Amino acid sequence: MAKVKPFKGIRPPKEFIEEVASRPYDVLNSEEARAEADGNPKSLYHIIKPEIDFEPGTDEHDPKVYDKAVENFRNFREKGWLIQDDQEHYYIYAQTMEGRTQYGIVIAANVHDYVNGVIKKHELTRRDKEDDRMKHVKVNNANIEPVFFAFPDNERLEQIIRDVTAQPAEYDFTAPDGFGHHFWVVTDPEQTRIITEEFEAMPHLYIADGHHRSAAAARVGLEKAEASENHTGNEEYNYFLAVAFPASHLRIIDYNRVVRDLNGMSPAEFLKRLEKDFIVEDKGTDIYTPAALHNFSLYLDGHWYSLTPREGRYNDADPIGVLDVTISSDLILRDILGITDLRSDKRIDFVGGIRGLGELKRRVDSGEMKMALALYPVSMKQLMDIADTGNIMPPKTTWFEPKLRSGLIIHSLD
Prior knowledge:
By secondary structure, the protein is α+β, with helices and mostly antiparallel strands. About 30% of the residues lie in helices and about 25% in strands. It has helices at about 15-20, 30-35, 45-50, 65-80, 110-115, 125-140, 155-165, 190-200, 210-225, 265-275, 325-335, 355-365, 380-390; strands at about 5, 10, 85, 90-95, 100-110, 120, 140-145, 145-150, 170-175, 180-185, 205-210, 240-245, 250-255, 255-260, 280-285, 295-300, 305-310, 350, 370-375, 400, 410. The strands form 5 sheets. Strands 1, 4, 5, 6, 8, 9, 10, 11 and 12 form a 9-stranded mixed β-sheet that branches. The longest helix is centred in the middle third of the chain and has 17 residues, at about 210-225. It is globular, with a radius of gyration of 23 Å. It starts with a strand and ends with a strand.
């Protein structure tokens, strides 16, 4: 059962929230962070991407960069830009995108639940990315940025969310990307008790986004436990920062592919080869969006096509084999185009659906890419089924939007 706890959040005073809050560290590069933080000493980028405080081109993994993160985190607290709450709390964090709002509960999740599989994952992690986040957690002795969790819908928690969010928000602002962010502190001891109780009754939590942050936090927690002579399991380092959303609140956006060449084939030859495994329909020059699961949108040579796999080309009983990302990877990218490693092959790139299918058309029309493939998005049920069966999603399967805004709250390991 999931073990969670309230905690003394470190967070900005209300008047500083918009200056401090930032996008997550992994959705932009150093130069983009440098530009966004320009003229703003309170930006969290100075802590999560501290290479911006050095000359352009500085290696973000240089020891002096991690040292700078520690220095900046300390300065933020000394200057009152980040202040720790006196009492332990849960918090409610809501995000609004395109008129739709999703509500999550900010918790301290247990590192042993991650290790023991109570917190389920659906992606593989890369050791180098884990190492980077682990160093960042260790040197700051804090989880600066949260992990994004999902949990099975729960009416008692939904009622608490409704009750808490009926009150004025502690933070309420719209970020430069147009997404709204809203934040409340849970102060009622009875609500706090119920939140702990309801999570403890859940057999599993699910990582939606933030696999590397979860793995890094767990490694730090286990390392600290091993080094402690008086370890009890209740220390703050046994927990890490997460925002957990009811599964029905979340929407996974499509994650699409663009490919540089047709593996030596002409467009006509490529389309002919597709017909072996797909029903191919020419949809003309207007953008065509996949209509349902197992329907794909192909953009090639100025035309959009509908691709529907023929009978028997995939296994409905296989939770991985039934995924559209698997069908397209096997029948198109591997069998026709010879692309076998989505993580490393330079012939393929990936485009989050937040950019729209017009971005696929642009990249093909520019000559940079030869063809684009749009996929119907994975459902939360598919994600949870895959995690429950111990399977791993293929690379570049899920894209969650909006991303959690960093800087609203931090969890200290002390």
